[in-house]
Amino acid sequence: KQEVTQIPAALSVPEGENLVLNCSFTDSAIYNLQWFRQDPGKGLTSLLLIQSSQREQTSGRLNASLDKSSGRSTLYIAASQPGDSATYLCAVIGNAGKSTFGDGTTLTVKP
Amino acid sequence: DAGITQSPRYKITETGRQVTLMCHQTWSHSYMFWYRQDLGHGLRLIYYSAAADITDKGEVPDGYVVSRSKTENFPLTLESATRSQTSVYFCASSKTRGGELRNIQYFGAGTRLSVL
C-alpha cells in the first residue's frame, strides 16, 4: 500500500526566504507526482505535475523535483511572499490511476 | 467556463438518511474521482471512474455508492449516512490516467457534509 509523508507538517518563515517542502513515498511504481495548494475552506489547485520519467518541473517561483528511486520529491519556493501562505499537498498517482495524498505542509509567510 | 462544480456546497443531514452529492465537469475528462478530507487523515480516495459506466473502489468505499451514466456527471451517494461520514468531500477530474502531462487533476470547491 502506497504511503505518502510530508515533512514538516507546518512551517513559518519571514517574507523573502527560500524554502523547501518535502514529500516521500514508499512505492516507487508511480505514474506521476503532483503538488497542490489548498487555501482554508477551498478546494485544491494544481501547482506542478512531474511525470515519472522526469526529474523536475518549474513554474515561476516554484520548482519541484522527483527522485523516484529514493521515493522523494521536493517543492522549492523562491522568494516567499505572504500570498504563498497555504497548505501544500503532494499526491502520487499509481499505475491503476489511484491517487495517494500526503497530509500536507501548512506554510505561513510572515510579512 | 464552469470547469468542475460540486453541489451542494454545504449539507446537514441526519443519521440514516440517504444523501447524494453531485459533481459535474464540462471538460469531457475521462477520469473522475471522489475524495474525503478529514483532520488527521488527509485526503482519501473513495471511488474513481475511468469512463462512463466504469467505476472502481478507492481506499475508503464502504457506505458509499457511485454511478456514472454520463461522462460529465459523477454523483456520490451515502445510502444510510453515519456520523463518521461527516467530512469535506472533493470531486476531481483528469483527462487521462497515463503518465502524461494532461493527467493533472482538477478539483471542485468541495461539499461540507455534517451528519447529526
Round the Cα radius of gyration of chain A to an integer and report it.
13 Å
Mean pLDDT of chain B: 90
The run of helices and strands of chain A is EEEEEEEEEEE
- What is the β-strand count of chain B? 11
Characterization of this structure:
The complex is a heterodimer of chains A (111) and B (116). Chain A has no helices and eleven strands. Chain A has strands spanning 4-7, 10-14, 19-25, 30-38, 44-51, 56-59, 62-67, 72-77, 86-94, 99-101, 105-110. In chain A, the strands form two sheets. In chain A, strands 2, 4, 5, 9, 10 and 11 form a six-stranded mixed beta sheet that branches. In chain B, β5 (42-51) and β6 form a beta hairpin. Chain B has strands at residues 4-7, 10-13, 19-25, 31-38, 42-51, 54-57, 64-66, 76-78, 87-94, 106-107, 111-115. Chain B is mostly beta strands and 116 residues long. The radius of gyration of chain B is 14 Å and the shape is globular.
Give the gist of this structure.
The complex is a heterodimer of chains A (111) and B (116). Chain A has strands at 4-7, 10-14, 19-25, 30-38, 44-51, 56-59, 62-67, 72-77, 86-94, 99-101, 105-110.
